[in-house]
Design brief:
Length: 344
């Protein structure tokens, strides 16, 4: 059996669930009979049936599961959540061989699903395309293993290393750095993450909406840090087109779509924010700046990816400096811009 081939099919299916399955992991399932795929399914949306259920429901009733191999990209769940345990269903249907890419880091599962299958006499083959499966669900895995969200730091800069003119020009277009292709890519990135974060100064200076208006997709939860609650209600970040979280030093309060969360600004702020976001089950955050916030993440080594869009044809001469990164080597061409990627 070409286990890698069928597991890759399961991983490709799993990918189709993002971002609708969050905060659940992406999972795909393929059922093979006599070296032929006879059924498949993936987890399509949070709260709906899991991949294994969809694949089993897709299996022709004339085909005996005992004669099939079930491939699943993540360990079958073993606990009662919004849906019944998938491990129980697999046992009940009579499958004799199950191939799993990687274990589930969720402590509610974490080996228990595989153990339940083995106890029922099922031959479980583990670790097929495990690195690829871990990469696919890196947000989910980071959330449980590091007990913090998956952080992506992103900014745009000029060829001479500036993020913005200072003072800001009256016409916002004069402060624009990225071309239309890069801007659209950033909006797609926003749509693929659960939340987006900026600092207070970015809100006060730029008045951003932080939405996905250039692409189709759900607006991320907006997060910003405002110790003394200086940002007034008229700013775009308080608009009703997305949920908004305000980390501050004044109050805890929920008002319509806005949640104020009080922090102790005498101790590490990013650590407190990470803890609160874990409580809220926010697994991924796109951090868009400004410079102070981005540098805090970098200096404390709290990030998983850094994305830097550079316009090689634009120089400001003076202004607000971007974080210092060594932009050499490989880059992706996005329109006229260069995209450099760094991993934490």
């Amino acid at each position: 059996m070409n286990h890698e081939h069928y597991m890759q099919l399961a991983l490709d299916l799993a990918q189709q669930g993002w971002p609708n399955v969050a905060p659940n992991p992406m999972v795909g399932c393929v059922i093979v009979h006599n070296n032929t795929v006879v059924a498949q399914g993936y987890h399509q949306q949070y709260g709906l049936q899991h991949a294994e259920v969809n694949a089993i429901n897709d299996l022709n009733t004339e085909i005996d599961p005992k004669e099939c191999i079930l491939y699943v990209s993540l360990e079958p769940c073993s606990h009662q959540g919004k849906t019944p345990p998938c491990a129980d269903l697999i046992v009940h249907k009579g499958f004799k061989t199950v191939v799993v890419a990687c274990k589930d880091p969720n402590p509610l599962v974490s080996g228990n699903g595989i153990a339940k299958l083995k106890q029922a006499g099922i031959n479980v083959i583990e670790g097929i395309l495990e690195p690829e499966a871990n990469k696919l669900n890196r947000r989910f895995i980071t959330f449980f293993e590091k007990k913090r969200p998956y952080y992506i730091l992103k900014w745009a800069q000029t060829a001479d290393g500036f993020m913005s003119r200072d003072p800001l020009p009256a016409n916002k277009a004069d402060n624009k750095i990225s071309g239309p292709e890069a801007q659209k890519m950033v909006h797609a990135l926003r749509a693929s993450e659960m939340a987006i974060m900026v600092g207070k100064n970015t809100v006060l200076l730029d008045d951003p909406s932080l939405t996905t208006r250039l692409v189709e997709g759900k607006n991320p939860i907006r997060i910003f840090i405002d110790k003394n609650l200086e940002v007034q209600d008229a700013f775009n970040i308080y608009a009703k087109d997305a949920e908004t979280i305000v980390f501050n030093g004044v109050k805890d309060e929920v008002r319509d779509h806005i949640q104020f969360i009080k922090l102790n600004f005498e101790v590490n702020i990013l650590s407190q924010i990470s803890d609160k976001l874990v409580e809220l089950k926010i697994q991924s955050v796109l951090v868009e700046g400004g410079t102070t916030l981005l540098n805090d993440f970098i200096q404390q080594n709290i990030f998983d990816e850094i994305l830097v869009f550079e316009n090689p044809n634009l120089k400001f001469g003076t202004g607000r400096k971007a974080p210092q990164m060594n932009l050499v080597g490989h880059f992706d061409q996005i329109g006229e811009d260069k995209l450099y990627k760094f991993l934490g």
